# Entry
Amino acid sequence: MTNHPTVFQKLALIGMLALNSMSPLQAQTDSTAATEEPPAVTEYMGRRVAQTMHWTGASWLVRHKREQEEAGTTMRAKLELKPGMMVCDMGCGNGYHSMPMAKEVAPDGKVYGVEIQDPYFKMLEENAEKLGVTNFVPVHGLIYDPKLPENTLDLILMVDVYHEFSHPEQMLKAMRKALKPDGKLVFIEFRAEDSDVPIKPEHKMSKEQLTKELNANGYKLAKEFDGLPWQHMMWFGKN
Ligand SMILES: C[S@@+](CC[C@H](N)C(=O)[O-])C[C@H]1O[C@@H](n2cnc3c(N)ncnc32)[C@H](O)[C@@H]1O
# Structure
């Protein structure tokens, strides 16, 4: 039996070569980039930046009660995805949202899943294969550079991710470049205003804080949905 690469492997290869290869050659480029890494922030505009959730906690992302606590199906329906759309799941983890979104934008649309933690890429490959998803493009980002193609995306979704950015300004600038002129960033963040939401304070964000940070970085609020059980859902477009 010949060992042909799967569609996922081909897409992954194209994505990695085009965007951020894990080949030895690119590793060289990355190490150069690493020496130029801008300083990380531990506070940003009055809020404490949260530590990145480690991949060993990945089972929490697929916990049994997640749909009940976060209403992911409702959230994704609110995105109004259509076949052909180009979408990014920024900080995609093991692809809990990426895979269903990829099915919605198929066959011509794509979901770029950006992660910074290596072990997630194997999980993403396995999940895509298991679910028959062929239009998911894994992207190995850097903490200050998501390695996305410019002027390409209709939407960049961040579920429980933005408050972890060690380089919020660099990430917001890079995502602004990756969005089409009318593209949107969509933030899903646990509500800081609500003490009943059982999440550590630095992993929550208020509407006021999020809006302040986005306005300072060239974005304006476009839309909100207040119907999720624990989280804000806020769309921002370019100013
Ligand atoms: C709490 S997890 C959420 C995962 C996924 N969005 C979900 O809802 O299932 C946050 C993820 O953001 C990723 N992350 C943090 N900073 C990032 C960055 N600068 N670029 C890409 N991913 C990042 C982390 O590696 C982590 O997997």
User: Anything to note?
Assistant: Residues 195 and 201 are 9 Å apart (CA to CA). Confidence is low (pLDDT under 50) at residues 1-34. The pocket of S-adenosylmethionine is lined by residues 52-53, 61, 90-93, 96-97, 114-117, 141, 143, 146, 159-161, 164-165, 171 (CB under 6 Å).
